[in-house]
Amino acid sequence: MSWPRRFWNLIHPGSLSRDLDRELQFHLDERTDALVEGGMSPPQAAQEARRQLGGVLRQKERTRDVDVVGWLDTVAGDIRYALRAIRGNSLAAAIAILSIALGIGANTAIFSLIDAVVLRPLAVERPGELVEISTGKGHDAFTNPIWEELRALPTLAGTFAFSEADLDLATGGPARRRPANFVSGGFFTVLGLRPLVGRLLQPADDVRGCPGIAVVSEGFWQRELGGSADVVGTTIHLHNQPFQVVGVLPRTFPGITIGRATDVYAPLCTNAIVEGSPAFFTNRSQWFLTVMGRLKPGQDAASASADLKRLAPAVFAATLPGNWGAKQQAAYLQRTLSVYPSPGGFSAVRVEYGTTLYLLMAVVAIVLVIACANVAQLLMARAAARQREIAVRLAVGASRGRLFRQLLTEGLVLSTLGAALGLLFAQWASRLLVRLLSESGDTVFLDTSIDWRLLGFVTLVALINGIAFGLAPAWRASTVSPQNALRAGGRTMARGEPGQRTGQVLVVGQIALALVLVTGGGLLLDTFRRLVAVDPGFRSDGLLLIRADLSKTGIADTLLLPLEQRLLERLRATPGVQGAAASRIAPLSHSGWNGFVLVDGYTPAKEDDALAWFNAVTPGFFATYGTSILAGRDFGPTDVKGGNRVSIVNEAAVKRFFGGRSPIGRTFRENNGDKPSAPSEIIGVVRDTKYGSIDESGSPMIYYPSSQVPLFGAQTQLAIHAADPASITPAVTAAIADVYPSISLDFATMSQQISASIARPRLLAVLSGFFGGLALLLALIGLYGSIAYGVSRRRSEIGIRLALGARPGAVLQMILREAGILAGAGLLIGTGLTLLGVHFLASMLYGTTPTNPATLAVSIGLVLMVALSAGAIPAWRAARTDPVAALRED
After folding, report:
1. In 3-state terms, what secondary structure has residue 760?
2. Which entry of 313, 693, 748, 879 is 20 to 30 Å from 663 by CA?
3. DSSP 3-state assignment of 396?
């Protein structure tokens, strides 16, 4: 019989049974008729036919074994029996399945993010051949002159360069920014991508002086262009410049940067159109390009790196920045080139959250272990309760291997049901995690859909856990002695019985692991609490931040500063505005400007000690931000371009560069290599403020008057102080439009900026707190189950104690003492594990230490309180045991 037919018979056992009945009946009738013809009476012939056939049921089973896959049929029977057993004890099974679902679901949710961010390769042809060209192991940026040298090298099968941008679709007013890439002409060819509509960019499209053309994503085509069939040739405006759409890229390729769904691809040469300056490409100090390539057939990264290292001196000699100092130029010429495998592209999410995700994976793995311990206890308790049933099976001839397989199947069925539910939970949880990741400011796009890696992970985890928590109960049950189990009172278990000891060991382990997670969660929650309470040095409420892009105005660079001043005057006259100022850098905006300074009388111990951070601000900036001026004065109308260079420094700069003495009237210079800047006179001191991140320590900060510093990329950072920033946004928009309607605006409040800056600590605090609480809940259930089970097995003993005069209070103390011993052992082991493990959190903490005794003490107290609470209920029930009823049961 064919294998497909056998599987069909396994799936349709009723049909097979009816067919076998008809076939056997046919043979019986044939044999009976033959015997009747030989002279037997019909009753005798029928009886003789059955005898000769060897038993109808036996023949039916033999035929069935031939017509189906026998072992699969047995497994199917085991599964059906396991499902009936689960239905018969639905409450305990529900708790077990929920425990498994939470454990596997949490692991799967975190793994789905790791898969999307770290493991999953780009959706391109042969992603394993992609490499990044770098000067080191990190993600390097290159200038366009370096790229033009690299693309001419024959080292790789193909190379391409790209840069990220957020291009504005609006022609003025509130910005409508979309993620975009400026790409070299070989970008799509090297990646092996195909268009959905039209064509993709080619090398001929990427030449200096090129017209504005673009390829858009399928999502952009549907959202912004209505999915029009004649999209090719359509004109879109990017940064107020016309671009003609030449093709649509299918959604199967969301972009080269993981976590960022790119909507628009424009040739690299069109960057000059957006920037408004062809000199952008000849600048040897403009570092903005990422360079990648594809290995040649049979080539590996090591050989490609060797070729590039040989060619690197010529590349850097040809692109040497002429305005650098001699020391910087010498260091530049010493740079080298190499390649690193990059099948997964690039990702800011990977850089910022990679360590966090692996830490969370370790946390949820511990949660899963605790959940498995609960299920193992449940199955051992069920196996102990079924000792008499198992003994009867053994007594009537069942093999121990058959019983072992049956009980192991029950564990695997529970694990499978829990994994299925956990997969649904993981899909919801992964989407929630992506939203939490997006709270850092930029929307994060991650594909967390189910793929073969995710399914393989879930299957593997379910299988391992099913075997892990089903093996011990199955082994214990299969070694039951039929004689002992069938004896009257055989169900009574002494405290030292192996099954109970195993359960106690599991409980101790659960408590120890729960303490590790609770303490870690407590440290991260304390870190987040401290960050929220940090004084940034400026007001966090009542401050509206506006990034104003003046490049769309088209006015000359020399007129940008007067335009900035006109904007401020108009904003200060707007009803509801209590103050307005501008700066080149907005605090906590992920932007920065730094450099080395020369101060008379100060000699840095190491080079970085002379590093300071800079900003350029308008008069009234400190009043608008609520930052106190501690000494000297603010900038005024006399501090203009062409006048004396002046500056204001913060407390950290005074402490480092001037030994804490008043710096008013002192001067410093910027160290620009061989050409230091002109001296700048210090006219004031302000308090320290946060610049790049909320958790940074005080760094030297120097402020210049904005009138003496040109705008960076025609961008100004406006700040408005108002009682209700959200309510005045329309009025502010209208006021700016009155001055110049084509100015592009991005709005955010300072409270939003601060919230975005602590997104990662918030994510860690929320998830570690949740998983720590979940671990504590599972440990509570485990301890309660262990104590309650032990009490039920010792019911006769407790009844005898009470019958002999023991007080209920003594029984209560006895059970609580046992719970306390288990909890104490778990806390002792857990403290050791905690002290070993929390050091991995050191880089993620702020204002506290990994071994903070207060956090550890609170965590121990919390776990101990929960443990004693778990033991109190079964202890109270034991104290209320009726001795007569307990002894009668036995």
Report:
1. helix
2. 693
3. coil
**Taking a C-beta distance cutoff of 8 angstroms, is the pair 500, 837 a contact?**
no
What SS3 class is residue 80?
A: helix
Residue 460 backbone dihedrals phi, psi, to 5 degrees: -65, -45
DSSP code, position 742: T
Listed range (11-20, 34-43, 519-528) with the worst mean pLDDT: 11-20
For residue 397, list its beta bridge partners.
none
Distances (CA, A) of 441 to 213, 536, 588, 752: 29, 19, 11, 8
How many angstroms separate the CA atoms of 334 and 771, rounded? 49
Q: Whats the size of the chain, residue-wise?
A: 890
Amino acid at 622: F
- Rounded to whole angstroms, the Cα distance separating 779 from 367 reads 10
Residue 712 neighbours by CB under 8 Å, 6+ apart = 584, 593
φ, ψ for residue 536, nearest 5 deg: -75, -10
CA 457, 460, 466: angle at the middle one, nearest 5? Answer: 135
The answer to whether the CB of 852 falls within 8 A of the CB of 523 is: yes
Q: How many CB atoms lie within 10 A of CB 695?
A: 17
- The pair of three-digit structure tokens given for residue 756, joined into one six-digit string: 């975005």
DSSP assignment of 130-149, as one string? Answer: EEEEESSSS---B-HHHHHH
Backbone angles phi, psi at 373, to 5 degrees: -65, -40
Query: pLDDT tens across 730-746, in order?
Result: 999 999 999 999 899 99
Q: Residues 336-368: pLDDT tens digits?
A: 999 999 999 888 888 888 888 888 888 888 888
Report the predicted TM-score, pTM, of the whole model to 2 decimal places: 0.80
Task: Give the pair of three-digit tokens for residue 864.
Answer: 């101990």
Query: Which pairs count as long-range contacts for 93-96, CB under 8 Å and 24+ apart, including other chains?
Result: 93/414, 95/374, 95/378, 95/781, 96/374, 96/375, 96/378, 96/379, 96/414, 96/418
The 3-state secondary structure of 507-547 reads HHHHHHHHHHHHHHHHHHHHHHHHHHCCCCCCCCCCEEEEE
Quickly tell me which residue has 């961010």 as its tokens.
117
Alpha helix segments (H runs only) across 267-325: 271-275, 301-318
CB 517 within 8 A of CB 770: no
Question: What is the rounded distance in angstroms from the CA atom of residue 374 to the CA atom of residue 563?
Answer: 69
Residue 554 φ then ψ, to 5°: 75, 5
The 10 Å Cβ neighbour count of residue 754 is 21
Helices (H), 533-641: 560-572, 621-625
Angle at 421 between CA 418 and CA 424, to 5 degrees: 145
> What three-state secondary structure class fits 642?
coil
Token pair in block for residue 210: 């090129």
Helix axes 387-395, 400-437, angle to 10 degrees: 140
Q: What is the DSSP letter of 633?
A: -
The pair of structure tokens assigned to 843 is 């880089």
Task: Give the integer Cα–Cα distance in Å for 415 and 797.
Answer: 35
